[in-house]
Amino acid sequence: xxxxxxxxxxxxxxxxxxxxxxxxxxxxxxxxxxxxxxxxxxxxxxxxxxxxxxxxxxxxxxxxxxxxxxxxxxxxxxxxxxxxxxxxxxxxxxxxxxxxxxxxxxxxxxxxxxxxxxxxxxxxxxxxxxxxxxxxxxxxxxxxxxxxxxxxxxxxxxxxxxxxxxxxxxxxxxxxxxxxxxxxxxxxxxxxxxxxxxxxxxxxxxxxxxxxxxxxxxxxxxxxxxxxxxxxxxxxxxxxxxxxxxxxxxxxxxxxxxxxxxxxxxxxxxxxxxxxxxxxxxxxxxxxxxxxxxxxxxxxxxxxxxxxxxxxxxxxxxxxxxxxxxxxxxxxxxxxxxxxxxxxxxxxxxxxxxxxxxxxxxxxxxxxxxxxxxxxxxxxxxxxxxxxxxxxxxxxxxxxxxxxxxxxx
Length: 409
Prior knowledge:
Helices cover 44% and strands 14% of the residues. The protein is of the alpha+beta class. Helix 4 (147-168) runs parallel beside helix 9 (291-303), helix 10 packs antiparallel against helix 11 (359-376) and helix 11 (359-376) packs antiparallel against helix 12 (380-394). The protein is globular, with a radius of gyration of 22 Å.
């Protein structure tokens, strides 16, 4: 059976696919999954009642009921099919997600922070995954009107991130071996090239687009962050896009979805992203006062048994500041042209996803937070640059603060 193709985005409200084209694609996907599971188990497996779980223009994701099951398969499964083909010379998202799911599935169930991988088909670029159920996402909790539930969900999410990274420390070679089995001869963090480009280009961007001159000492401080992009003693698995809508709040704790850009990287890049406006598929929101610090503390507590040196407050502050610089400069390179009237060129790993009209407020919030943390760490040049950028962004609409999440409004 030929791979499915489409240019249409999937529905995202958990309903059976309605349009004829969508129904046809779903039926083909169910047939492919039946073939895969039957071949894997050596006896007929029948799937029924597909429900569209959303996805994107690049993937189709459905929940199916296991109608005929001669084995001990779960009652329901989730099937994800990649609709696109990787561009020449670029990383293949299917391979990265499949390798990530294999890595995490091999871990003890009490340490697994993802759905279990049931089967995969590299030829048709398809994954069959454990169905974690009809759980709320972290994004749902933040959109509800229960601040205590939202706070618990955020802290549980941060702890789960730390626990996942602690349990994958030292597994980078395993991840590389899994990728090679799928045909990726070498792998690298997809963030690295964009980050190095940002460190090189942002000073000129600031000068040309905002009329802000970055002092040489500020540039030197920023470029020191590049050390996080290479080998270090603090590397672990990262899902890369830690969006609230990619986290299920289950009875067993937070579980992560979507590992298309997952890789091993310095854990400080995960910790620092907890201090910034969280990536979101909708309008950007502000965290309540003190929540970022509480989330970092929850994340840190899971890591110190593996990396005791991270219990040193000064060391942790320094590493997180370097990572924060990388995220803020990445976002600036991608979003600043749109702030001043040009097109944004957002790479897929910017810490804030699709800010749209909120770009001035998002960039201002990022630089403002960087300025606060740089001042606390004694990085005077970075703090002064941040203040200048925030002031300049104010002339482009960046003086409007981000609204809070509905849970904290």
